[in-house]
Amino acid sequence: MKTAKLTLLLCFVTLLSFGSISTKEKEALKAIYNSTNGALWRTTWDLNKPVNEWHGVTVKGDKVIGLNLEFNNLRGTIPQEIGDLVHLKHINFFRNKISGGIPATIQNLKSLVTFNVAFNMLSNPIPEEIGGLESLKNLKLFMNMISGEIPNTIGDLTNLNTLELYNNQLTGELPSSIGKLTKLKELLLSSNQITGKLPSTISNVKGLKILSLFENNFFGTLPNSICSLINLEELVISNNAFYGKLPNQMANLSNLKVLLIGNNDFKGELVELQSKFPNLKQFDFVDINNQGAIATLDSEDDDD
């Protein structure tokens, strides 16, 4: 009788130690381990130990809610099974060597708040299913080799605060759906191959503080709508193909601290522009290809 009770007690303790993690979630974690060469991680997992003892795994209320494996030598791809970790709130795979792409099953993670796979070797296009992450606030995919266009579904991430896609190989135009991201504070798209005009819908993103488009293939005049972004602190649009005259109401951007507009084809004299922005700390307007071509505020409206 005592032996039976002891066995039951051990079973109960074992159940608690695994945090009652569902088999499906545990198998999903194992799939990530196997798909990214877990045996060679800097800090690996002992699969015989309880899940809540695995490095970087956060368990709360019997559910896996966090996965932090930054700087951990992950090599391989993100498996489809990641979509089975439906209670995840945070994924951090920063600074590893993950290749391939983001699986479409990512759309199952309705509670995900932070998704950071920056500084890896991703090359596949961003899947349209990314728009299913309705709770997402921070999307960081910078410093990869992601190809293709930014999907129109990016506009469905209406809770997004930070969108960092710089230093990739993105092409196509910035979708006008970007205007639906009304909670966005930082939009960093520098060092890609994005083309087309800056969509006028950007004016809907009233809380935007940082807009960085440096080193792309944007062209056309800068839309007047940008002047409604009165919270903007950094405007970085150097090394594109913008042309014409700057919007006449640009002085509305009185909170600007950084204004970098060089290496475009803006017209006019840039003598008094700096004085229009009392908080400006960093300012660059020089066109190294034609140092006589400098820009200034102008009284004429553009086509937008």
Describe the structure.
This protein is mainly beta and 304 residues long. The protein has a domain of 152 residues: Alpha-Beta Horseshoe (Leucine-rich repeat, LRR (right-handed beta-alpha superhelix)). Helix content is 10%, strand content 19%. The strands form three sheets. The protein has an eleven-stranded mixed sheet with strand order 1-2-4-6-8-9-10-12-14-16-18, with no helix packed on it. Strands 11-13-15-17 form a four-stranded parallel sheet, with no helix packed on it. The protein has a three-stranded parallel sheet with strand order 3-5-7, with no helix packed on it. Strand 1 and strand 2 form a beta hairpin. The N and C termini lie far apart (84 Å). The N terminus and C terminus are likely disordered.
Short overview:
The chain is mainly β and 304 residues long.
Main attributes of the structure:
mainly beta, Leucine-rich repeat, LRR (right-handed beta-alpha superhelix), eleven-stranded mixed beta sheet, four-stranded parallel beta sheet, 2 helices, 10% helix, elongated, disordered N terminus, disordered C terminus
